[in-house]
Design brief:
heterodimer; A: 34% helix; globular; B: alpha+beta; Ubiquitin-like (UB roll); 3 domains; 6-stranded antiparallel β-sheet; 12 helices; 34% helix; centromere (chain A)
Chain lengths: 288, 346
């Protein structure tokens, strides 16, 4: 279950934009090289049409598709699929290095709920994460949609799910140099917008969660509610403000951070599978 | 004219919005009216600034004059900078007559004795405000004109407003020079910061309204306190509660506009208290938190929290004390004794 830290290092500390993807029809692992060539040709053609990215920059985009065998929950999951776009400026020598400009990867971590019920010839990789220019994301997305008859949708994260993440991640074992557990709220509908950042010392947040969680390895909605209520009550005691009435928009911890617009950053390779499992679940809920 | 001075003047003019360049050059007064007439203000800024530099060349501008133009720009666009407020303290009760020449002399002497390469410029404004600009160098390098510190000192008060250079080591030198020059013996950071220099002045000079009932209350977002509909079939629920909240808000905030602050930060080192039935955390050590409120206009947004149902009325004194305690950075510890629910802010 543990992913090779070297191969997955590039996944850490990047802000990934999240999408849910419906199952891909007719996708074959053996044809990755072909797909890379076709996608590359598609991108070049779109550029000719003047529909793509960088204005005035002479760039050739090289496409690489690969499998990340370690990124999956169980044998029932498909291995993750990585798409990488690199640029090489025209006119430079063959020896010059390609510079990566965009990453996108499809994955499924314990996504059995979806793959169980899917007919033959469909590949389930419900979670898609992208990093890089939005215009490249649009190009890659539209090629996949056309080629495999699938559908991409931005994945928003609700305040409810953000509080789950806060509770889960606050309870993780800590390094000495762990950063605070920060909750960011936005207060809607005021004449002047107000943002509230509530950052708790990681040791103290973990100490609180440890007294709330009854069964190690298991988290219930009730426990998450108690954890959040404690934090809200502590805040109210000081400021007389009902944080529960504000909108939780971002959660940031030493493990990972997540924003309600569906943007996630994972900081610790040890917790990568756990975070992906949660995000896979969110993606599947959006698809169904 | 020195090349670096020419470049500095060119870049300063480039910062100014095109339709304000003429006005600022007039305020500067270094170029004659005749020279200003020769400038074409309808071309692109790049060309305007080149022409200005040429005229400055004719007049042999040096860094001192260029620095004055920079002060004028920063005085008008003061809200682009972050200002911190400092308060100076006198040892005795002696009322000393403020002599501006003496102040400037002592300030320059103190700084120059610590650092050979500094550019120091003063400009006085109407409201007794002395603007000071300091560009910092090292024993071997000429002053960096692009990272200066700005100080605004109101000579009839112990308050100094500092927009610090990013070169952090310069702040202690600056503070030293200020107290020596103004005959004070100490200076402290009031932990009060904002982009709005005028609001900071409003707070420390107590120029904002408190409990002043002259203005009519503004209509609240999402509903009026005084319903204007004549339809008697619509009865407002909790009317008396709404009125109570409104009244409490008036008492705390007054009816006038609030000083403009963008944030308030609280370092909490208080105990975590919970209902014993909940069986949660019961530590003897503080529950450490850092809370930060941000808004384009913080005090105005806080005012509307209770009417919006997001907060109890009256609002917590931790928030409402900001203007009269004249600070927006706090460290809160538990107060021991009879009232364990109340807090102490040192």
């Amino acid at each position: 279950e543990k992913a090779d830290p070297q191969k997955t290092a590039f996944l850490l500390r990047k802000a990934w934009t999240l999408y849910s993807v419906t199952p891909l029809y007719g996708f074959r692992r053996a044809r990755l090289r072909d797909y890379a060539r076709l996608l590359g040709a598609f991108i070049a053609a779109e550029k000719q049409k003047g529909l793509a990215v960088e204005v005035g920059v002479e760039l050739d985009i090289k496409v690489a598709l690969s499998s990340l065998a370690d990124i999956r929950g169980s044998e029932l999951d498909q291995a993750a699929l990585l798409v990488q776009l690199s640029s090489r400026s025209r006119g430079s020598s063959r020896n010059s290095e390609d510079k990566p400009v965009w990453w996108g990867w499809f994955c499924s971590v314990f996504g059995d709920e979806l793959s169980e019920n899917v007919p033959e010839h469909f590949t389930c990789l419900p979670l898609f994460l992208s990093h890089g220019a939005e215009s490249y994301t649009a190009l890659v997305g539209s090629w996949f949609q056309k080629t495999f008859d699938c559908c991409f949708r931005r994945l928003a994260i609700s305040p409810l799910n953000l509080s789950w993440m806060a509770a889960m991640w606050a309870g993780c074992k800590l390094d000495r140099a762990a950063s605070a557990v920060e909750l960011v709220f936005s207060v809607p509908r005021l004449a002047q917008p107000l943002d509230i950042s509530y950052a708790i010392h990681p040791e103290d947040a973990k100490a609180l969660w440890d007294t709330v969680q009854k069964t190690p390895g298991e988290i219930t909605q009730e426990e998450v509610d108690v954890f959040m209520d404690c934090l809200y009550a502590h805040f109210h005691r000081h400021f007389k403000i009902h944080l529960s009435a504000a909108k939780l928009v971002k959660v940031s911890t030493a493990i990972a951070s997540a924003h309600c617009d569906g943007i996630v950053k994972i900081l610790h390779s040890q917790y990568l599978p756990g975070v992906l499992m949660l995000l896979t679940e969110l993606a599947i809920s959006q698809i169904q | 004219m020195d090349e670096t001075v020419a470049e500095y003047i060119r870049r300063t003019v480039l910062k100014i919005p095109r339709d304000e360049i003429k006005m600022m050059l007039q305020k500067w007064g270094f170029l004659s009216e005749a020279q200003l007439q020769t400038l074409n203000f309808h071309q692109i800024k790049d060309n305007i600034s080149q022409e200005v530099v040429q005229l400055c060349e004719e007049n042999s501008a040096d860094i001192k004059q260029a620095a004055v133009l920079d002060i004028i720009y920063n005085h008008i666009y003061q809200n682009k900078r972050m200002w911190s407020v400092y308060q100076m303290k006198k040892s005795g009760e002696e009322l000393e007559y403020f002599d501006i020449t003496d102040f400037k002399k002592k300030f320059k002497r103190r700084l120059r004795s610590a650092l050979k390469n500094v550019t120091i410029t003063f400009k006085e404004y109407e409201d007794n405000a002395i603007w000071i600009r300091v560009a910092w160098g090292t024993p071997h390098k000429k002053p960096n004109q692009y990272k200066p510190s700005y100080v605004v000192y109101h000579s009839q008060t112990p308050y100094v407003f500092i927009s610090s250079s990013v070169l952090k080591s310069t702040l202690p030198l600056l503070c030293q020079a200020l107290i020596v020059a103004s005959n004070y013996h100490d200076i402290r950071d009031m932990e009060l910061r904002s982009h709005s220099l005028n609001s900071l002045k409003d707070i420390v000079f107590k120029r904002y309204s408190q409990n002043f009932q002259t203005c009519t209350p503004k209509p609240l977002q999402g509903g009026n306190v005084e319903p204007e509909n004549a339809d008697i079939r619509i009865v407002e629920e909790n009317r008396s509660e709404k009125e109570r909240i409104h009244r409490l808000n008036q008492e705390v905030f007054g009816s006038g506009p609030q000083p403009k602050l963008e944030f308030a930060q609280y370092r909490l080192e208080t105990m975590f208290k919970s209902d014993p039935k909940m069986d949660v955390l019961d530590k003897k050590e503080p529950f450490r938190c850092l809370v930060k409120f941000s808004s384009p206009h913080l005090l105005e947004s806080l005012k509307f929290l209770a009417p919006a149902g997001m907060a109890d009325a009256p609002l917590s004194p931790l928030l409402t004390c900001i203007p009269h305690k004249a600070r927006n950075y706090f460290k809160i510890r538990e107060k021991k004794g009879l009232y364990p629910e109340s807090f102490v802010s040192p």
